[in-house]
Amino acid sequence: GRADLYYPEARLVIEYDGVNHRDRLVEDNRRQNLLITAGFQVLRFTAADIHQRPGAVEGQVRRALTRVRVSGTALLAAGSSG
Questions:
Q1: Of the candidates 22, 57, 66, which has an alpha carbon nearest to the alpha carbon of residue 74?
Q2: Are 7 and 35 in contact (CB under 8 A)?
Q3: Strands (E), 2-78
Q4: pLDDT score recorded for residue 12
Q5: How far apart are the C-alpha atoms of 25 and 63, rounded to whole Å?
Q6: Which of 39, 42, 47, 80 has its CA 20 to 30 A from that of 10?
C-alpha cells in the first residue's frame, strides 16, 4: 500500500487510520514495521485525532519535521515556494 502522506527528505510517513482501519490492521502493522526497520519515522492518526485534536496532530508533525531540520536537512513547509 501507499502512505497517506510522505515527506521523503524527512523520511517521514504519516498514516490516517479511518473507519476501515480494523479490517486492514495486520497489513498496516506489517507495512509500518518494514518502514521503521528501513529508517522511516511513522506517525499514525485516527479520525478522532484529526477532528478533536488538530493542534496536537499539527504539533507532532511539525516537531518531526523540525527534528530533521535541526539534524542538518533543510525542508520547506508544504506549499512553500522557498
A1: 66
A2: no
A3: 5-7, 12-17, 41-46
A4: 96
A5: 26
A6: 47
Distance CA 44, CA 17 (A): 7
Please give the full DSSP string across 26-64, using - where no structure is assigned.
HHHHHHHHHHHHTT-EEEEEEHHHHHH-HHHHHHHHHHH
**45 close to 17: Cβ distance less than 8 angstroms:** yes
Cα separation of 27 and 79, whole Å? Answer: 31
Torsion sign, CA atoms 5, 60, 29, 46: negative
- Cell numbers representing residue 47 in the block: 479520525
Q: Take residue 72 and report the three cell numbers written for it.
A: 542538518
Cβ(65)–Cβ(13) below 8 Å: no
Q: Are 37 and 66 in contact (CB under 8 A)?
A: no
Per the listing, cell 519535521 goes with: 65
Encode pLDDT of 43-78 as tens digits: 999 999 999 999 999 999 999 998 876 565 555 444
